Amino acid sequence: MPVHFAAARSTAHSPIARALARKALGRAANDNGVAGGDVAVEGSFDTMMRAALKHFAQHGLGAAREARNQAEQAHFTGDTESYAWWLEVCRTLDRRAAEDLVRRLDTTSALIY
Length: 113
Hints:
The structure is a single chain. 65% of the residues lie in helices and 0% in strands. The chain is mostly helical. Helix 2 packs across helix 4 (80-93) and helix 3 (63-77) packs parallel to helix 5. Residues 36-40 have low confidence and may be disordered.
């Protein structure tokens, strides 16, 4: 005896269809967004995004690693302005790598002093 499957017409009427239906995401998670919508912050965000994209165009998938290396080198030579710049480029490309660098440099600085 053949068995035929008849799917429900809407997910509202079928518990199985509701369980299998994909849930709509409420909001996209973007960790690089502008905080607070401030115009001054937004302008610097655009500048940093352009610099990060240009850096990415030059170095490809290793761009975040290269920016992290540049920030690390600037930190150890005492160039705080370059360190802040490269850290922000790294943060724009890979937030976790930038946070790891800051955490590691804070630990290293504590050991040195």
